[in-house]
Design goal:
Length: 456
């Protein structure tokens, strides 16, 4: 391993330069104008995988964006197979005016690289490419069989990766899956994430009168779909922060007191948390702590609501339509399809007959929990310790990786989330950044992981 680690040290500047090239490509999966950029990005990832030692690298087209697949099976039938998952697509960049430098012109400043996608997830998936390259260039082989699945639709709701996994379970057969797309509890605290929330996503549109109306001539007599929508959305949670959809909590599993006690040991400072966010206090479901609210309780949020006139000056109207996007974060054992269906039924029941309701249900994602005593988690813990020289903490996560559950449920593989992001990375937000220290040591952690997992 010493030689692998020295290779990583020696190649640091090339690694960051190559990552910079990857970050220059605006691979925003949810915006159709970036279709070509998605292809360009997949091509560049393919090139990097080839230079890392993979000969069998494929671009798998889907109805949406392509999957980058690669495999190296040179370790032989008796050696374990590790599948590496990551995503090369990124979130949209707006509001653009809040960025200190253009999102697709990476800048290195204050020990970080700044660009959209640097932490989520290009910088993290790149750690694996570079660590595998280090193994290959040093030893002419990888320590284990390796399969790579990098998707281009994680940040878009319609992912075709589920279908690909279901139809290709033999191709993708593996013993372990490693995913680096999560963050640490705090800077300086290498973290294994062992749970992600699932997600249901819905879009609703209310239509009232067949055209916008003068709010003086008609106001008071004709229901305003925007007012109605606000009222309906407000009814989705009660005063205790509980979601009112019937049956919503039926499948929620309570966690043990022991696990709750573990949460309390983490250095969470609520005052600091509020200060950082610029809020006076937190708020959420009564009877739960902040970490519990984020990690082990489901929730519902408006992501956006539109309707009527929002341009300069006044335009006194009753809008004909109003719509909203909502996400629900789910915990074991809630099922995204059931939850979405229950949402639709309840939401429709709240609507007065003065409006018509359209509900679009997007495919969601299951929550995931990975057992802490698995070989994959143990290898990742040792790898983080070796690379960062510190003890590891464990946390759950409020965000979602919709496909993550399929690696265990379909492929029967032990999954581990060994992320290198930090809570200050501003993912999905302006000024996304990724710590260079975590990038370089992340490459080493990945290299150690492949070594350790080959020996268990
Ligand atoms: N990497 C994130 C998930 C995540 C968020 C991990 C925060 C750790 C901390 C992932 O790319 C993501 O953003 N997922 C989306 C999925 C959605 C678009 C279906 C999410 O959670 O909103
Ligand atoms: Mn991600
Ligand atoms: Mn993301």
């Amino acid at each position: 391993m010493d030689r692998v680690i020295s290779y990583i040290e020696r190649e640091k500047s090339r690694s960051i330069n190559e990552l910079t090239e990857l970050l220059r490509i605006p691979s925003i999966s949810s915006q159709t104008e970036h279709k070509k950029d998605m292809e360009k990005c997949a091509d560049l990832v393919v090139n990097y995988l080839k230079s890392a030692g993979f000969e069998d690298v494929r671009i798998v087209p889907t109805k949406g964006h392509s999957i980058v697949y690669a495999q190296w099976l040179g370790a032989g039938k008796d050696a374990p197979t590790v599948l590496v998952y990551g995503h090369y697509d990124v979130q949209p960049v707006d509001p653009l005016d809040l960025w200190h430098s253009p999102p697709f012109e990476p800048v290195i400043k204050d020990g970080k690289i700044w660009a959209r996608g640097c932490a989520d997830d290009k910088g993290q998936l790149f750690c694996h490419i570079k660590s595998l390259e280090a193994h290959f260039k040093t030893n002419g082989k990888f320590p284990v069989n390796v399969k790579i699945v990098f998707e281009g639709e994680e940040e878009a709701l319609e992912s075709h990766l589920d279908e690909f996994i279901q139809n290709n379970s033999e191709l993708l057969a593996c013993d372990y899956t490693i995913i680096s797309d999560t963050e640490w509890f705090a800077d300086g605290l290498p973290t294994i994430c062992y749970g992600l929330r699932g997600i249901s996503f819905v879009e609703v549109t209310l239509t009232g009168p067949n055209r916008d109306l003068h709010s003086g001539s008609f106001g008071g007599a004709v229901d305003n779909p925007l007012n109605v929508l606000c009222k309906m959305v407000a009814q989705l949670k009660d005063n205790n922060g509980r979601i009112t959809i019937p049956g919503f909590y039926d499948d929620v599993i309570d966690i043990s007191q022991k696990e709750k006690d573990e949460f309390k040991k983490l250095p969470f400072d609520e005052k600091h948390y509020c200060k950082d966010l610029g809020i006076k206090s937190v708020n959420g479901e009564k009877g739960f702590t902040t970490l519990e609210r984020i990690w082990i309780r489901p929730t519902l949020d408006l992501n956006g609501i539109v309707g009527g006139y929002t341009g300069e000056g006044a335009k006194t109207i009753i809008p004909s339509k109003a719509s909203a996007k909502l996400s629900m974060r789910l915990v074991p054992n809630q099922n995204p399809e059931d939850i979405s269906k229950n949402f639709e039924k309840y939401f429709r029941s709240l609507a007065p007959e003065t409006v018509s309701v359209d509900v679009k249900l997007a495919p969601g994602g299951n929550p995931v929990i990975t057992p802490l005593d698995s070989k994959a988690v143990k290898a990742a813990v040792s790898a983080l310790k070796s690379a960062f020289g510190k003890e590891v903490v464990y946390m759950r996560e409020g965000g979602s990786i919709p496909v993550a559950d399929m690696f265990s449920s379909v492929l029967n593989a032990e999954t581990v989330f060994m992320g290198f992001g930090l809570p200050t990375d501003n993912i999905h937000s302006p000024n996304e950044n990724y710590s260079l220290e975590n990038f370089y040591n992340g490459i080493k952690a990945s290299a150690y992981f492949f070594d350790f997992i080959s020996k268990v």
